[in-house]
Amino acid sequence: MAKLPFSIFRRAGRRFFSVSFKNDKTGEYLPAISTKQETEAAAIQTAFQWLKDGIPRKGEAVSFKKYTLRDMAREADVTTADCEFICKELRRRGLLKSYVLSETKQAISFTEYLLDFWDWEKSAYIKERLRKNHGIHKRYVAEMRAAVSKYWTPLFPGKLLGEVARQDIERLITHLEGYQGGARDPGQKSAKRKNKIIQAGTIPLKWAFHKEMTDQDVTMGITWFSGKPKERQILSPEQAAAVFRVQWKDDRARLANMLAMITGMRAEEIQGLRVQDLGRDCLYVRHSWNFKDGLKTTKTNESRTVEVPFPSLMQELLELARGNPHGKSMDGYVFWAEKLPNKPMEAEIFLRDFRAALVETGMSKESAAAYTFHGWRHYFTAYMRDRVNEKLLKSQTGHKTNVMLELYSGHTIAGDRERIRAAQVAAFSGLLPVSGADYFVAAGE
Q1: How far is 378 from 368, CA to CA, in rounded Å?
Q2: By CB count within 10 A, which of 147, 259, 378, 414 is most buried?
């Protein structure tokens, strides 16, 4: 009798014969299955039928090949590597969208991962950036962590890092579209603010992918919020002159605003000025200051020399530094605080006294409230743009790209119309059949 591809037997005390099929690839017999037959001949016939049509399991006929797979999955000693291979194969076939293996980097709480990512002391990402001398500051990290706590954490309780899919990010974006905040957090947010909230989660997700903590970059191809940023109000030259003719509450604030107007320096850069940064006719912008970081590098992580061709202003800055009540150290702040030696005066005072001075010129409080200290940076860039080339202007403002320079200098200023008309006459006067008198009209004279 030919050798059967299975084994037929009846256990002691049992009524029915069982069959155990042989796996041709491994040479091992699979677990026994009852044929429900009382004779060996009938059991053999049933076994052959099952080989042909499939083994009945829970209302379906499972092919011998599938049965072998299921039995192996149930009985085999599967390692983590085996499991990962199987899951990858199932995903390749489109039967599995995502998976998370136990005790892997993916099997950690998604929200805890985000909070740790933006933890200054714990984050491997922050340590890496600092090690590579890339600019990152505590204030920025604190803002991103706050965004995670407020907007990401409530949406994804119990979600594992490896389970996060593109749809989850889209869900957050949809949430931001319809967000209705309270009195201290209004629902109407700028596109820039919404995008920063999204980045609080997508930056960690992209980093996780690059560090092979996840096997998909779910942040690819996100459609960000768009919208024109609100243009900052800038003064006319006449208004700027008037604001420095009135009496200021604090002379330090007057000097800070004047310095911002003629250099375009940021508030935190002015705060970070120390005695050693004062040149004879220039300033060495090496640091900036904020409450979270204290004295730190500039926003671009680069130093620059800012020209101040006004001897009287430089003299006033020197006298202010000499008047520091905490001593005359070269490390002392030029714009010192009255009570503490290790910090400069608050930038809020710069703005408060600026608006108060605007009111002194005759402007209403409501109109003055539309102006910000940062508006001086726009003022400087707008009025200097036509006078120096882009390379020189960026060397003074510290802008890294022409795109940002355009954003800051894109204000309509007095004389724009006349400059455009004069340029038109110069470029096209020889092309048009008009008299010489018409040129003067075209030029606005």
Answers
A1: 16
A2: 259
- At 330, the amino acid letter reads M
Distance CA 304, CA 398 (A): 7
Report the distance separating Cα 353 and Cα 359, nearest Å. Answer: 10
Nearest CA-CA partner of 286 in 300, 304, 299: 304
What H or E segment, with its residue span, contains residue 199?
Answer: helix 191-210
User: Cβ contacts of residue 426 below 8 Å, gap of 6+?
Assistant: none
Q: 237-409 has which fold?
A: hpI Integrase; Chain A (1.10.443)
For 67, the enclosing helix (H) or strand (E) is helix 64-75
Low-confidence residues of the chain: pLDDT under 50: 183-184, 405, 407-410, 412-413, 416, 419-420, 423-424, 427-429, 431-445
**Do the Cβ atoms of 393 and 385 come closer than 8 Å?**
yes
* Measured CA angle at 356 (ends 341, 278), to 5 deg: 40
Strands 6-9 and 304-307: unpaired
Q: H or E element: which one contains 305?
A: strand 304-307
Q: Is the separation of the CB atoms in 336 and 273 below 8 Å?
A: no
For residues 290 and 288, what is the distance between their CA atoms, to the nearest angstrom?
Answer: 7
Q: Record the tokens describing residue 206, joined without a space.
A: 């992209």
Can you list the pairs that 405-414 forms with residues at least 24 positions away whose Cβ atoms lie under 8 Å? Answer: 405/381, 407/229, 408/377, 408/378, 408/381, 408/382, 409/378, 409/381, 409/382, 409/384, 409/385, 410/231, 410/382, 411/231, 411/234, 411/378, 411/379, 411/382, 413/234, 413/236, 413/382, 413/383, 414/236, 414/237
Query: Which residues are paired to 18 by β-bridges?
Result: 9, 34
The Cα 208–Cα 125 span in angstroms is: 10
| Residue 310, token pair as written in the block | 């006004």
The first and second tokens of residue 37, run together, are: 């037959």
Q: Kindly report the pTM of this predicted structure.
A: 0.56
Of 233, 270, 229, residue with least CA distance to 363: 233
Rounded to the nearest angstrom, the gap between the alpha carbon of residue 99 and the centroid of all alpha carbons in its chain is 27
**How would you label 416-440 residue by residue, b for 16+ Cβ within 10 Å and e otherwise?**
eeeeeebeebeeeeeeeeeeeeebe
Strand partners, 34: 18
Q: What is the largest CA-CA distance in the chain?
A: 124
User: d(Cα 357, Cα 306) in Å, to the nearest integer?
Assistant: 26
